[in-house]
Amino acid sequence: MRFGFVTCVQLGLSCMQEIYACGGALALAITLPDHKALAKSGRVHLDDFCAAKAIPLVKVANVNDPEALAAIGAHGIDWLFIVGWSQIARSGVLAAPRQGALGIHPTLLPEGRGRAAIPWAILLGLEQTGVTLFQLDEGVDTGPILGQVALPLSAQETATSLYHRVARAHRELIAQVWPGLEAGRLQAVPQDPAAGSVWGGRTPEDGRILPAMSALAADRLVRATTLPYPGAFQDLPEGRLRVWAGRPGLDGEPVPAHARELRLAQGRYFATSWDLEPSPSS
Q1: Which of 69, 150, 172, 256 has the least CB density, counted as fewest CB within 10 Å?
Q2: Cα–Cα distance for residue pair 97/179, rounded to 1 Å
Q3: Which CATH architecture best describes the domain 204-278?
């Protein structure tokens, strides 16, 4: 089997490193040109790693460009990993590798197809989430499943902690499936298109803490939107209070030192890590 990898972020590079830790190898890597997406979160350059491992490296502005398709064909790629790549791989790319293209989604598919997987897992109060290796098709996270790693969630889980656990689980998943994938004996299990759920995208405005929220709902929102995301917030007369951490408070409990109590209709919530962004008029 000959493998290729498409990525431009640290998460993808970590998976590439894990392939070599498993004794595997890559016949091709594809990434963005150096000047593209400089502000992309987690952006890395693959040059040093590819040079050290003698991996041919092709840089394209779009994974669907003819140069990418030509490289996949020229290097005889059987399976093409596409990880941490924001462009949608169209039919030409999906058909170019002999076996197909593979993606990793940070949920236990078929649950959580779509976007914002880490915040939604916390907002929905799930007991577990995970990561899934699946074959890409022209749907959204609908292709056959080749492997999964489950991650139990604690009642105090934050986006920060889950983000790092999901990153580690990507490597664990690669290590789990690599022997079967390399030997060509890994079985893909089709998804039931009627099963599971679809999670929609989220914007920074979705982090607004509404006065009608309960303290528990506010706590979930804060934990779900903290770093590396934009954070939960509440607008006050003196500016926008950006909340990174906190906890529900008890009736009659004094506000802890250096904390702020948010205005809520149901219960009390103490922001213990926060920034105050002055309003434009102040």
Answers
A1: 150
A2: 19
A3: Roll (3.10)
